[in-house]
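Project standup — Tuesday

K.O.: blocked on the structure for the chain from last sprint. Re-posting the sequence here as requested.
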Amino acid sequence: MKNKTDTPSQIRFGAANTDLFEGTELHWINTIAEDTWQVKLQQVDYKKENLLGNPTVALMNPSFPFIAAPYEDFVKFQEALNSTGLGSTYNLTCTALDWCYFKTECSNIADSLPDLTFHLGSGE
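H.V.: unblocked you, prediction finished:
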C-alpha cells in the first residue's frame, strides 16, 4: 500500500507516527460506545454558520466515503451550497432516498468550496 509520498503505508498499534503530521497536533477524541467509533458531534460549520440544529452523534467509518446526515440538517447545507452556485456548477445530485452527492471528482471541487468543519468530541 502506498501513500501520497510514494512510501509504503504503515499501521501502528498504541502510538502514532508524528513524522507524518504537518502543521497540527493530534487530538484524541473519546468514543461514546465500546463497539463502534461513535463520537459526540457538537456542530457542523459551513461558511462559518452552524448547520446542525442540536449536538448529536457521529459514526466514524474510515472505509465509507460518504457523509450522511439527518435530512433536515442536510437541507441547510444543500441550500447554502446552492446559494453559492456551486451546487449546479459541480452537479449536486439528490436521490429519492435522500442521498446527495457530486457527480464530479472531489479533487476537482475541493479548492472551490468553503470549509466544512466538524466539531467533534465533548467540547470541553
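K.O.: great, moving the ticket to review. The radius of gyration is 17 Å. Residues 18-120 form a domain with the Cathepsin D, subunit A; domain 1 fold (CATH 2.40.70.10).
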